[in-house]
Amino acid sequence: MSGLAIDDAAWSSAWRRRSPADKLVLCLGLVVCALALPAWPGSGLVALTATVLALGPARVPPRTFGRAVRWPLAFIGVGALTAVVQVGGGGLGWAPDAAARAGSLTAHAVAGSTAVLLLATTTPVSDLLPALRRLGVPAAVVEVASVVYRLLFVLLDSLRTIREAQTARMGHSSVRRSYRSSGALAAAVLVRSWDRARRLQEGLAGRGMDTGLRVLPEVLPSSRAFLAATLVGLGAIVTAGTVLA
Question: Could you list the residue ranges that cross the membrane (predicted)?
């Protein structure tokens, strides 16, 4: 059990066999459009396009995509709230253009987050990391990302095991016990993660692994039709977002 619904969705996506480079071109293009085009209608078109592609051709489960979007929306909401508050002689107050500023910030952020989630829910990390290496991302950065990705599942398994043990011992039967159990859970997971990372480093060093771990990545062919459709779609979004603004 992986414990990550996004990772499961990426492996079962209908776009799983598509080239990661093709999906990177699409999603990065959508992110650029979300940042460069006016909030209306540019960001709305980007968010709509990414959502339709994820739920339609990519066949990402709507429940998974919706749950993945809600956490970025929470951070966006907090960011928009802090961006429209100003400090003046009378203390805290709303900025004169609070509504327009909050709307613009929220629209750009939601559109960009939706485009990134399209990539996350259709491309497994094991496909994405080799593609980043081929695109010129430093090998050290890719290696650190790979190790963190692998350790994440170990930590999630530890978190689940400790949580089940606490629940079986009535560790969450009251608010006070839940507070104490949560603190103990965080401490235990932190210690385990530190110990597991140390043992992994010592093991690799003992085997002479002073360079990156060499593996044979799966090569997925690029699709000219997909790239052409991507360029046409991005062009249509740019045109509509510019003309209708």
Answer: 24-53, 73-95, 102-123, 135-156, 225-244
Amino acid 80 reads A
pLDDT above 50 for 122: yes
Backbone angles phi, psi at 121, to 5 degrees: -90, 0
Residue 37 · residue 238 · CB < 8 Å: yes
DSSP H helices, 56-138, are 62-83, 98-120, 125-134
Q: How confident is the model over 50-71, as pLDDT tens digits?
A: 999 999 999 999 998 988 888 8
The closest alpha carbon to 119, from 164, 40, 74, 58, belongs to 58
pLDDT attached to residue 89: 65
pLDDT above 90: percentage of residues in the chain = 25
In one letter, which amino acid is 138? P
User: In this structure, which amino acid lies at residue 89?
Assistant: G
Question: 154-159 contacts: CB < 8 A, separation 24 or more?
Answer: 154/193, 154/196, 155/189, 155/192, 155/193, 155/196, 156/2, 156/3, 156/4, 157/3, 158/188, 158/189, 158/192, 158/193, 159/185, 159/189
Nearest to 42 by CA among 105, 99, 107: 107
